[in-house]
């Protein structure tokens, strides 16, 4: 059975205007999207800017509220769950954003950032937490002595490694990557992509992977979904999709 099964997902944003901020229209950002994602699989999500990729990704994680549709994680539909009922599922779904600097608190040390989810979920504290954080640093290719440093003391690629370590901290089943290497130097992109691939081989979680660079998507994905105006217009094995025009 699929880890994630999305059925007829719809997200309409209200557009407000005028000094009274009344609703003047609706953006059909996602308009009936269905796909499934197996355990240990990577599904690439491509399409031009504004076609709804980020909205799909954020809705699947319930960071954005779906208008309608089902989001089944291990067969359980999480779309209608209350915030409280959703909590146990949050642990298994993580996101890595495009700009690692923007998603890191500049006043927290890298070690505290990576260990924060462990604290929030009450999973580890004190020495046990430090050990787990050191292990996560090592998994993403950072040194344990860098735990005391602040985000500005890291390079762009290293900052994305901090975000990845934080995403790994709770042992996720699904990691959504929303343009995770687009803000990085081209020379660093391959290193981060190869790290993501390597981590998946060892830990067997799934990726929903958004990127506009088709070479990057083709490299990391097993299957690729092509979006256009809020819908998936093609979904296929990457070899089939990129073989011939
Ligand atoms: P992509 O990730 O493919 O660039 P998005 O999911 O960001 O696409 O956006 C899809 C559409 O939804 C776009 O037309 C965008 O302007 C619109 N949109 C995204 N977020 C919001 C929002 N919070 N409020 C209103 N419209 C939004
Ligand atoms: P991206 O394509 O990487 O999502 P955008 O500039 O389209 O970048 O969106 C950046 C943020 O602004 C996202 O959180 C998105 O949901 C939000 N956003 C996009 N379009 C709109 C919109 N029309 N109204 C309000 N928020 C929007």
Write a structural description.
The model has no long low-confidence stretch (mean pLDDT 95). This protein has a six-stranded mixed β-sheet with strand order 6-7-8-3-9-10, sandwiched between helices. Strands 2-1-4-5 form a four-stranded antiparallel β-sheet. The chain has eight helices and ten strands. The protein is globular. Helix content is 35%, strand content 29%. It has helices at 53-60, 83-90, 110-120, 126-139, 156-168, 186-203, 214-220, 238-243, and strands at 4-17, 22-37, 42-46, 68-73, 76-77, 93-96, 174-178, 206-210, 223-228, 231-237. It is α/β, with parallel strands linked by helices and 245 residues long. Strand 7, helix 6 and strand 8 form a beta-alpha-beta unit. Bound molecules: adenosine-5'-diphosphate (2 copies). One adenosine-5'-diphosphate binds at residues 13, 27, 29, 47, 49-55.
